[in-house]
Amino acid sequence: MFKLEPMNFNFSTVKGITEDQLMQHYKLYSGYVKKLNELWNFPVDARKYGEGNSTYSNMRSLKLGETYALDGITLHQLYFENICNSFKKPYGEILNLITRDFKSFENFKEYLTNVGLSMRGWAILVIDPIDNKLHIIGSDAHDVGALWNCYPLLVMDVYEHAYFIDFQTDRKKYIQIFIENINWKIVNERLEKYYLIKSTLNNLRCFGNNSICPIWYI
Ligand SMILES: [Fe+2]
């Protein structure tokens, strides 16, 4: 039986966002975990779902709920993790890449803020093996605008539920506080993992094994 437990986060280390706001947000995340636990214990017997139909069918409901819950869990875990604890000043390799790909840290903050104001769900800093550069992706919902092969480095939730208790309609102020709380150590660690995965796959290809994760062909 599949059973996932919600992760724990130290919300007392976040400055400028109240624990009440963060705990209400955490309840939503826990709800996605609960629903995924239900979804991933459903039987895989195809005939139990009746005939598939893209307007409405039992299978369609299951599949839409599955991606929504699963992406909701992943994105919220990354989001909570990258605003908790210390290391609030950018440094190291991620700062080098930001300067390289966004010209300056100030411009990066403005660009991230603009994406956050323009989307209804998420702004996500990723690195993609196609060009090995940073990109900020905008998404209107957990399961909309997902990219399958890029690696998430920094996740910002811009749903109203992420800030409305503390900031009401002032999303720009919330984004400013979010940026001040970014845990750059976590972001650097994610970048290191990306490099490790990439070099491991490249080494495997040295032995002629092109069947492993063929999309990562760079
Ligand atoms: Fe959220």
Automatic annotation (TrEMBL):
<feature type="binding site">
    <location>
        <position position="76"/>
    </location>
    <ligand>
        <name>Mn(2+)</name>
    </ligand>
</feature>
<feature type="domain" description="Manganese/iron superoxide dismutase C-terminal">
    <location>
        <begin position="91"/>
        <end position="190"/>
    </location>
</feature>
<dbReference type="InterPro" id="IPR019832">
    <property type="entry name" value="Mn/Fe_SOD_C"/>
</dbReference>
<feature type="binding site">
    <location>
        <position position="157"/>
    </location>
    <ligand>
        <name>Mn(2+)</name>
    </ligand>
</feature>
<dbReference type="InterPro" id="IPR050265">
    <property type="entry name" value="Fe/Mn_Superoxide_Dismutase"/>
</dbReference>
<keyword id="KW-0479">Metal-binding</keyword>
<dbReference type="InterPro" id="IPR001189">
    <property type="entry name" value="Mn/Fe_SOD"/>
</dbReference>
<protein>
    <recommendedName>
        <fullName>superoxide dismutase</fullName>
        <ecNumber>1.15.1.1</ecNumber>
    </recommendedName>
</protein>
<dbReference type="GO" id="GO:0046872">
    <property type="term" value="F:metal ion binding"/>
</dbReference>
<dbReference type="Pfam" id="PF02777">
    <property type="entry name" value="Sod_Fe_C"/>
</dbReference>
<keyword id="KW-0560">Oxidoreductase</keyword>
<comment type="similarity">
    <text>Belongs to the iron/manganese superoxide dismutase family.</text>
</comment>
<dbReference type="InterPro" id="IPR036324">
    <property type="entry name" value="Mn/Fe_SOD_N_sf"/>
</dbReference>
<feature type="binding site">
    <location>
        <position position="25"/>
    </location>
    <ligand>
        <name>Mn(2+)</name>
    </ligand>
</feature>
<dbReference type="GO" id="GO:0004784">
    <property type="term" value="F:superoxide dismutase activity"/>
</dbReference>
<dbReference type="InterPro" id="IPR036314">
    <property type="entry name" value="SOD_C_sf"/>
</dbReference>
<feature type="binding site">
    <location>
        <position position="161"/>
    </location>
    <ligand>
        <name>Mn(2+)</name>
    </ligand>
</feature>
